[in-house]
Amino acid sequence: MSKWVINESLCKGCGICIERCPMKILAFAEHLTPKGVHPSSMTDESKCTSCAICAKSCPDVAIQIYKEEK
Amino acid sequence: MKQVFGKTNVLSANPTHYCPGCDHGVVHRLIAESLEELEVADRSIGVAPVGCSVFAYDYFNIDFNQAAHGRAPAVATGIKRTRPDSIVFTYQGDGDLAAIGTAEIIHAANRGENITVVFINNGIYGMTGGQMAPTTLVGMKTQTSPYGRDAATMGSPIRVSEIIATLESPAYVTRVTVNNIANQIKTKKAIKNAFTLQKEKKGFSFVEIVCICPTNWGKKPTDAHKWLTENMLPVFPLGTFKDIHGIEKA
Questions:
Q1: Which residue has the higher pLDDT, B43 or B249?
Q2: Residue among A66, A62, A60, A64 at smallest CA distance from A8
Q3: Which of B22, B63, B70, B247 has a beta carbon 3.0–4.6 Å from B18's, enabling a disulfide?
């Protein structure tokens, strides 16, 4: 299961999560959603720290964050 | 895997009609999370304004009302007085609160109604297509000030929080912003303080949130937050102007 889950139907492609990600591992996807936007996508999940800054920055609450349990 | 962040159930599953990057969505979430954490969502009643956030009732899973333009504090007064145990808040933009609704907000604040007002200040009329608002910055170009706002003929931006803070009755008046995560955390705290005061029946609380309007500012959402930091915040300084019960220190 992945740490970073996006509901692409909610993403409007504003890019705020991509700009704010401290690890710079988010980018616009190549494909288009039915809304006609390039959604945000994860490029390298191994670097994701589950800080949730992207999810909290998202005005459309499109991102869910999971963390591995120790 | 443990979920560390997800959508609160106080927000509905409907996709919002707001433009990409609009801060309304963030503020909606902060309000919903605050109501949930204070365990008052089941007895909360919101009042939506006229403006972009007129459809706010579609985005919350709580009771909502929609008021005539600018009259949200008057409608909220009625709801609160008939249902004193409800948590009543209005959600208003600068066209609604600072222009057509100036009388209602001033008098609701002056009566010290036990309601919470969330004021979204983005310095422009969003819904109608970017006309000049009372909070538009001097020199800022809008549809109705194409050469920039001229202070000599059009006046200067109104600082609503400062005006409200001069009144005797309000319990809590603060200005915050959501231009980055640190300020977003402070904003949530301010909203929570406001609802806590209302829950304890301690009087009128007013939270002004300086926001972006990327579409009508003609900027990318990411650039708009920089523009807000550089241009809006010097005119609308952040801070708490009134806190008679000392809730921020508590």
A1: B43
A2: A62
A3: B22
